[in-house]
Amino acid sequence: PSQACAEARALVASAHRITVLTGAGVSTDSGIPDFRGPDGLWTRDADAGRGSSLQAYLADAELRRLAWRAKLDSPVWTARPNAAHKALVELERSGRLRTVVTQNIDGLHQRAGSDPHRVLELHGTLHATVCLGCGATGPMRDALKRVAEGEQEPDCQRCRGILKSATVSFGQELDGEVLRRARLAALDCDVLLVAGTSLSVQPAAGLVPLAAKAGAQVIICNAEPTPYDAVAAVVLHEPVGDVLPDLSSVPPSGGGRF
Ligand code: NAD
């Protein structure tokens, strides 16, 4: 193992409170493409992000119909958790991982077995819908069933408003309570383990300098450099599917019990 790996293992071994921040890179091994990696959706098609803005979604009925049709075929519905998700479940069982803050909307941390109460979905979830008119929420499954049965755009069954996945689009605010808890988790950890994120989306990326300023040791594991590599104690440009299982198998230093 590299020197950087050994340093990361030592940090994890002595940590009592670990907060994890994940991004699309932890789910690429599950068959869900990221946005900005080499094979990312936006790397291949610079215009693909257009439909991700709330304004465009509200203004353009054709875009909404395309979005619903595309959702039927989303890789998320068949994806299974991979070694990276499972490693974080192991780390949680060791009693040291307090919170998983994720930018992912695929629900794979919970499916792998992470305690749902410890997972903070900063950008919402694809597994639910929300009405942009009355705020009613419901299972995505129900809306997709209607699309599969031929409805081009399922509307809200309560108020006939525009329905959207319960994900945070560009131009949309994050859930204030989720963000508040994520910031607390960044402030109250001795190690912040960052995995599979380009750290190019705010306010999520801002959790990294926040934790560092509060005294946490930051470990960044990402295939490519990130804008916050300089504040990290250790940077690992290696696959998360190798690094996270390696780190989660580290026994606590001194053999202490929790
Ligand atoms: P991003 O695409 O900007 O960055 C992902 C990073 O992970 C890239 O730098 C890439 O090089 C790296 N990476 C990919 N596979 C890796 C691997 N196996 N090992 C190590 N590194 C790997 O993603 P982001 O930072 O999460 O931001 C994108 C936004 O898009 C988020 O806000 C998120 O909500 C959304 N998104 C979510 C999903 C999902 O839920 N799975 C997928 C795509 C995008």
Structure description:
The protein has 258 residues and is an alpha/beta fold. It folds into 2 domains: 1-32 and 81-123 and 174-258, Rossmann fold (3-Layer(aba) Sandwich), CATH 3.40.50.1220; 36-78 and 124-167, 2-Layer Sandwich (SIR2/SIRT2 'Small Domain'). The protein has 10 helices and 9 strands. The strands form 2 sheets. The protein has a 6-stranded parallel beta sheet, sandwiched between helices. A 3-stranded antiparallel beta sheet has the order 5-4-6. Helix 1 crosses helix 10 (240-248). The chain is elongated. The two termini are 27 Å apart. 38% of the residues are buried. The site of nicotinamide-adenine-dinucleotide (NAD) has 28 residues, from helix 10.
